Amino acid sequence: MKFSTAFLFLLLNFEKICSSISLKGMKLNIPRAVRAGHSVTLSCEYDLEGAQLYSVKWYRENDEFYRYVPKEEPPTRVFTIQGIHVDVSVSNAHSVTLLSVGRDISGEFQCEVSADAPSFHTQLLSAPMTVAVVPAGVPLVTVDKTGLEHGRPLIADCHAPPSHPAANITFFVNDEKVPGYTSDWITSNEDQLEQKTARLELTGVGGSWDPLRIMCEATLFRLYRAKSLDIEVKPDTPHPASVLLMGTSSTDFNLFYHRYYVLFLELILLVIWV
Q1: Is the pTM of this model over 0.85?
Q2: Could you tell me which residue ranges the Ig-like domain spans (predicted)?
Q3: With contact defined as beta carbons under 8 Å apart, do 106 and 88 qualify?
Q4: Residues 34, 105: Cα–Cα separation, whole Å
Q5: Cα separation of 92 and 106, whole Å?
Q6: 153, 181 in Cβ contact below 8 A?
Q7: What is the Cα–Cα distance from 253 to 246, expressed in whole angstroms?
Q8: pLDDT higher than 90, residue 100
Q9: Secondary element (H or E) of residue 97
Q10: Which of 4.10.320.10, 2.60.40.10, 1.10.220.10, 3.30.1160.10 would CATH assign to domain 140-233?
């Protein structure tokens, strides 16, 4: 009776015991972002600890696009998914290479590994990947200080070049990083690329103040980082007063001129009379 109970326990837990010694240290290596038009290799590391591999399957979202089954001939199989082109010549049980990726395939990628009998233990890992269109050029800073004389803030706009997705923007004032900005907005062009503009409003600027150097930086994942040119904003200097003779007012000057003009006419008349 004791023997049959122990045997039944082992039989019921045999799959769990086998599963516990399979698929250790599974790790997924997928770049967070890749340039559009480039090739990318996705890899899936695992340790079966002596068990045989049954299959490796790759998915984008819920759509399978690549399968590796060592017992089949050929072991690789590719499924048609729009925008995904597998390089079978270099893909294997641990990695799959995608050729000339387009931004439409951005999303969640999954690797599913299954051990062979008797456990058939299966483990699945997923990670996001974005196919990015990197900006061409550098960001541009424009400044509007027309409202300063009315007590309104100094406005600086940073325009990032078009990209997909929109770039991240950071402002710097006198080489000091500014934590955030006041507002931002995104516009799309005919190529469905997104151009981001961020606005920084600086209050308390006016009167007598030191020049400000404003610069911004645009980044897109680890694929792109560029800085704008520094824009130096100087305080408005007062308009110079009209140049007056000896610092007199215009009224005093006119009176001074009139008196000497009358005296000059009197001298001319005196000469003629004599």
Answers
A1: no
A2: 37-126
A3: no
A4: 11
A5: 22
A6: no
A7: 9
A8: yes
A9: strand 95-98
A10: 2.60.40.10
